[in-house]
Recover the amino acids of this structure.
């Protein structure tokens, strides 16, 4: 069980001290996943670190590529809308979680919320599997991207080197294997503080590099027109929207809020303020500077534009430093998105009545977590085109979890008047992003069909 239920008295009738005592007593009722992985010990600032790591991640380096399909006006508009809608929806989700905590039913997982608000079938057969697919897909994507960045560093020093991409993916997988053994989400707070600094660092490097190349004669001629025929442009627009939505995606807001020590009221909002301050500093500077410098030649990963036919357009040490910052943060992002998987594994194999670090729990923990990382690394090495698959996962996963379900949960929980603006705003957000999710999924499937002829297992791309 991952919901803290009231014993004899509703929490809203007790003071904050009583709430803390009651939650402490209820820890005994938790399953091993909630008890060991989702420990509620953190401060609001730790929540800010977790949020920033899960949202402000290296996929932001693909934002200039999204602009190639949208152009200046639509690209900036989509960035602004994405920031406003996700900040709003994440706050709604937090308010719903706080409301249930005050009623004595603190939800520690997304599926627990769905069980309580929508019914057990929604939690078990929709929200739970979708969240697991999104988060494990993010782990695979981080492992693949980490391998690609390692290969880029290798080719800088050995342009004719013989090492293949899958070898670098395996090397990155070993790093993930070590980090996966960190026992709880709360234990990642110091790593995620470093991750916050790293995302600012590589974003600053990407922005500075783009401006330098854009002002020099080394870069491509600036062309901001959209390429392709009408059909390609139309599907490109929806692909770009999916990229931006996935970049803003989180999918683990309840699990992050679960790490906060009670009482939780107001703490998530402070954490989101930290996250979105960093987000605005990074997303907009990277997207605008990258698209300004490279126009419609922007690559799927901005760092790829820093090389022209293998020749660096910036000093090698600068490209090396930027890639190292990116690799290190990718490892933190990967282990954050591994937490829902760890929670499921802990719930399945661990014994909540035994000590967390007893041999009864440590051995299954190490074996199961290691196996999950090995599987993710194998998939990343085998399917270097996983980015296309991840677009489909993002459309089916991040859109519902981050744009649709929060407003639905709010309306069902607080039941605002049908005459109130907030009710219709939430209905509009749910309807618009439901439609965009379906269209983006179709566009992503189309892209897979177009790229299918280039797919090869263990391809060296």
């Amino acid at each position: 069980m991952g919901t803290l239920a009231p014993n004899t008295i509703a929490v809203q009738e007790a003071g904050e001290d009583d709430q803390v005592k009651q939650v402490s007593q209820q820890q005994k009722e938790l399953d091993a996943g909630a008890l060991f992985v989702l420990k509620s010990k953190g401060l609001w600032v730790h929540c800010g670190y977790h949020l920033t790591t899960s949202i402000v991640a290296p996929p932001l380096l693909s934002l200039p590529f999204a602009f190639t399909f949208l152009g200046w006006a639509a690209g900036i508009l989509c960035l602004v809308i994405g920031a406003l809608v996700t900040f709003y929806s994440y706050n709604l989700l937090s308010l719903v979680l706080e409301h249930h905590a005050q009623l004595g039913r603190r939800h520690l997982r997304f599926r627990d919320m769905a069980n309580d608000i929508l019914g057990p079938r929604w939690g078990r057969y929709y929200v739970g599997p979708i969240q697991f697919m999104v988060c494990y897909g993010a782990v695979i994507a981080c492992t693949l991207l980490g391998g690609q960045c390692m290969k880029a560093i290798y080719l800088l020093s050995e342009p004719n080197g013989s090492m293949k991409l899958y070898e670098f993916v395996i090397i990155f997988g070993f790093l993930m294997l070590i980090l996966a053994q960190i026992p709880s989400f709360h234990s990642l707070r110091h790593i995620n503080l470093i991750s916050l600094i790293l995302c600012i660092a590589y974003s600053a490097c990407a922005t500075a590099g783009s401006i330098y190349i854009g002002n020099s004669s080394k870069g491509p001629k600036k062309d901001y027109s959209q390429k392709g025929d009408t059909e390609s442009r139309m599907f490109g627009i929806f692909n770009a929207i999916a990229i931006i939505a996935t970049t803003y995606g989180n999918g683990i807001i309840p699990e992050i809020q679960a790490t906060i020590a009670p009482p939780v009221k107001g703490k998530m909002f402070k954490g989101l303020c930290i996250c979105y301050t960093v987000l605005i500093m990074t997303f907009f500077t990277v997207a605008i500077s990258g698209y300004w410098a490279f126009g419609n030649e922007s690559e799927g990963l901005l760092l790829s534009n820093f090389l022209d036919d293998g020749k660096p357009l910036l000093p090698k040490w600068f490209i090396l430093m930027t890639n190292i910052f990116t690799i290190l943060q990718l490892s933190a992002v990967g282990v954050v998105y591994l937490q829902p998987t760890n929670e499921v594994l802990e719930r399945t194999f661990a014994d909540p009545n035994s000590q967390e670090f007893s041999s009864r729990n440590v051995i299954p923990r190490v074996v199961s977590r290691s196996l999950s990382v090995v599987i993710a690394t194998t998939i990343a090495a085998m399917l270097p085109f996983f980015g296309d698959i991840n677009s489909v996962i993002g459309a089916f996963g991040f859109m519902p979890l981050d744009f649709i379900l929060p407003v639905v949960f709010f309306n069902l929980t607080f039941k605002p008047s049908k005459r109130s603006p907030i009710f219709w705003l939430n209905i509009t957000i749910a309807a618009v992003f439901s439609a965009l999710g379906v269209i983006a999924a179709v566009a992503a499937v189309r892209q897979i069909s177009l790229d299918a002829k280039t797919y090869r297992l263990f391809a060296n791309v």
